[in-house]
Structures are given as C-alpha cells and as structure tokens.
Amino acid sequence: GRAGVFPEPQQDPVIAIAAVALRQGAREPFLRVVFTLLPCAPLRGATVRSF
C-alpha cells in the first residue's frame, strides 16, 4: 500500500486477510488464521491458507 494513505480498492489490492477467534472469557485465541492471495512464508502461531 501507499504510505500514509488509507487503502482504496481501485489502487491498493488486498493480498491478505487475518482473523483471530476468541471464546468469551478466554485469555488466548483458539484460532489464528491468515488468508493470502499467493503463497507466503509460515507465520508462527497462525494457520496460513493461500489461494
């Protein structure tokens, strides 16, 4: 993305989306997942799904 500019879909493609799932009252998430447009290196503590 462009430094200092909020991403715009026409100019700044989305290449990764991350999510963390937490059970109510829990201190640690039970799921950490990252969805990427292309393959990427493994991320410690997260599941990576590439498409």
From TrEMBL:
Residues 3-41 form the DNA-directed DNA polymerase family B exonuclease domain. It comes from the Eukaryota. GO terms for molecular function: nucleic acid binding. This is DPOD1 polymerase. The gene is Pold1.
